[in-house]
């Protein structure tokens, strides 16, 4: 069982951001204490700032410097007045699909709010991982914490689609990299104009025009809208361009299964598993397709692997719910 008391105590590692923007507006977000006087948040929260402050314990503290990784939407902020804020523990092991997770972040002017759900999918992207969950978070929580049941940081709450139906976080692998880079830069180059608080150039990858966004984001939206023919076409293009990408083959398998092209779906998802044997969602798709295609041998393999990798997905498969969710017709 999760330790809710400990998770609530982790709110002490979060601060509220107020970004006072060049147009006179104010943006609200959340930041996480990851090193002494160093906080991580989303760059889209601070992108238009002419001035940044952090609010903690009813007091306001200025941000002296900002180091931006705009592409991955992760900004590191230095505020020397907040060196004693408790630091969050960053998870070192990779999260798993089906794992229970918790979202913790401010909601506008309210104290941090805790939500919970599970990891729906994980996507390798540009040397890191993007985590898709069904864990809701609201405006103001951008930059907040995605936590495991031990209260360790798995990622930074970042963006939502379709009115919050799809939630995405930047995984802690990128956070660790940002800490290493920014700790050195912010400590040794305190007068560097590049680190001053000012409006940022560029845009995160998820705010790029649709045709320039990663395949996995376009695929997630099509799947959420049950546009299976469009998803199949996108996934076929994806597998042709990235034939060794397991996510591409898994996506193709899910689209083919939803379109009742069962033999082709088994081929696609089997290819995904040849590339990455530990993909729990691919095993779920394999079991669904195999059950409908009369492949009892593959059903047995799927059950065995899901029991090991993701018991929650195995329960869905056993109850038929996981397969129904992936077989909606257009």
Biggest β-sheet: strands ordered side by side in the sheet: 5-4-1-2-3-7-6
CATH topology of the largest domain: Serine Threonine Protein Phosphatase 5, Tetratricopeptide repeat
Count every helix, treating DSSP H or I runs of 4 or more residues as helices. Answer: 11
How many domains make up the coordinates? 3
Category by helix and strand content: alpha+beta
Number of strands: 13
CATH architecture of the largest domain: Alpha Horseshoe
Q: Report the order of strands and helices.
A: HEEEHEEEEEEEEEEHHHHHHHHH
For the largest beta-sheet, the strand count, sense and barrel status come to: 7 strands, antiparallel
Question: How far apart, in Å, are the first and last alpha carbons?
Answer: 39 Å
Low-confidence stretches: 326-330
CATH superfamily annotation of the largest domain: Tetratricopeptide repeat domain
